[in-house]
Amino acid sequence: MRFETALSYDEFAYAQKFAATSLINLLKIHKQDFENIYEIGAGSGVLTKLILSTLNYQKITLNDLYKSEFMAKFETQIGDITSLNLPKVDLIISSSVFQWIDDLEALKNRLHASLKPNGILAFSMFCGGTLEELSSYTKQGLSYKNSNEIRQIFEDKFEVLSVKKDKFVVKFNSLKELLNHLKQTGVNNINGKFRLTKSSFKELENHFNGEFHLTYNFVNLICKKRELQ
């Protein structure tokens, strides 16, 4: 998520806020007290603000590809999570980020190695069916994994404490409003070979048939590090 191209993210990130809130509510059922927290993809602080108001901790480190204005107030580690040297922590948390990671298997191994014994990995990620109203027309977009695939990736090195699937539907008054939402949140899958022209705009408008909405399906996982032999 490149926040320099999505300056009004907080204003339009309805689904992302819903997913982050759902994640925190699920996590606090299991544990609320941590020594060191590492957040992946902090951005404008949608999840961070919930962490600050809900969890108890001694230290928090925020990660993202770019340092947002919000992140400047915290200790940060800027860069690609798939190649950074991660600190030892007892909670790694992330929301609305892992769907962008091509190799979740490799990321899982890195996160497992960086967690302390009995450390917790808590994340929410968008899964199959997300933005299907748009991708059914454009025939492109992220290849979202389904919730079972996601669980299977992590459960060999983590004990899965909770899995919760949910969805959030965002409704709009027009196609223009819908497209602006995608632009402001950086989740625009109208790219590649597809180009939005005057005629294709009208075709896309007809495709929605007056029902301008987008569905975000997501899954929350709360996992505990397995101590492997």
Automatic annotation (TrEMBL):
It is an enzyme of class 2 (transferase). Its EC number is 2.1.1.197. Keywords: Methyltransferase, Transferase. Gene3D superfamilies: Vaccinia Virus protein VP39 (3.40.50.150). One of its GO terms (biological process) is methylation. SUPFAM superfamilies: S-adenosyl-L-methionine-dependent methyltransferases. Pfam families: Methyltransf_23. GO terms for molecular function: malonyl-CoA methyltransferase activity. The keyword Oxidoreductase does not apply. It comes from the Bacteria. PANTHER family: ARGININE-HYDROXYLASE NDUFAF5, MITOCHONDRIAL. This is Malonyl-[acp] methyltransferase. The gene is bioC.
